[in-house]
Amino acid sequence: MVQNLGFAIFGCGLIGNRRAASLPAGSLRYACDVDLVKATALATRYPGCRAIDTSEGVWSDPSVHVIIVSAANLALAPLALAAVRAGKHVLVEKPGAISSAHLKRIAAVAKETGAKVRLGYNHRFHPAFLKLRELQASEETGDFMFLRARYGHGGRIGYDREWRADPELSGGGELIDQGVHLIDLASLWLSDFARVEGHAATYFWDMPVDDNAFVSLRDTKGRTAWLQVSCTEWKNLFSFELYFQRAKFHVEGLGGSYG
User: Fold this and answer.
1) d(CA 93, CA 18)
2) What is the pLDDT of residues 7-16, one digit of tens each?
3) Of the candidates 115, 124, 227, 231, which has an alpha carbon nearest to the alpha carbon of residue 170?
4) What is the DSSP string of 48-99?
5) What is the pLDDT of residues 93-141, one digit of tens each?
6) If you average pLDDT over residues 162-189, what whole number do you get?
7) Which helix H or strand E contains 188, and what residues bound it?
8) pTM of the predicted model, to two decimals?
9) Nearest to 72 by CA among 206, 210, 166
10) Which of 48, 52, 181, 229 is the most buried (most CB within 10 A)?
11) Residue 95: is the preceding peptide bond cis (ω within 30°)?
12) CA distance linking residue 75 with residue 97, whole number of Å
């Protein structure tokens, strides 16, 4: 087992910088971005890190064991696939791809090479959710019945002209952006989704992707997750309610601008 892992980050924006800050000192080998200025700005803060704008050389470098992919949605799957083909482990940001077929291909190749792949569904590790699971384990809650969750923000001037509003780059709108977090969280309490209903709509923003989505998920036991996501809120919002036969848990806010 490798004791001292070496990392490379692809995508040096906000999330890439956050991931870099969480790594052990001296472990970041490469900062890669099509914008070399961004890559350089990140790399200069980490001794031994090299700024690059191409992936050539990273896949064959034996000092790199883990690839962190924090690029735009369109680039997530191609970079993750190249990494697992090279036998590198991967943390790829949500949603992981703009097509489930791409994710299945990554899983198949990773199985062949032995690479580990994880998607960046960080909300399940948020302190509030860790505490919720702890409380649930210690209380006589009775059987789980259903959950209700809302997640949203208000966008900003020009939001409908950013990359998230371009379906070729993002793969979709608010449902694939924030909605996937709620779907992932719902999967912690529901088994495989036997029934999926809902719709996505564009009510406000001048863009070809959804700015609101409404989803109802049910498993084989009839347990339900009712989810709504929006980028037309007046104030950032996060609300997650779990209903059991003898208890209710409510996570309100995520910190920062989400309260």
Assistant:
1) 12
2) 999 999 999 9
3) 231
4) T-EEESS-TTTTT-TT--EEEE-S-HHHHHHHHHHHHHTT-EEEE-TT--SS
5) 999 999 999 999 999 999 999 999 999 999 999 999 999 999 999 989 9
6) 96
7) none
8) 0.91
9) 166
10) 229
11) yes
12) 8
CA distance 52 to 223: 48
* pLDDT at residue 62, rounded to an integer: 96
Q: Which two tokens stand for residue 211?
A: 């700015």
Structure token pair of residue 54: 């191409």
| Mean pLDDT, residues 231-251 | 96
In 3D space, the residue among 254, 106, 95, 257 whose CA is nearest the CA of residue 183 turns out to be 95
Using CB atoms within 10 Å of the CB of residue 235, give its burial: 0 to 12 exposed, 13 to 18 middle, 19+ buried.
Answer: exposed
The 3-state DSSP class for residue 227 equals strand
Tokens of 151: 């997640």
Residue 256: strand, helix, or coil:
helix
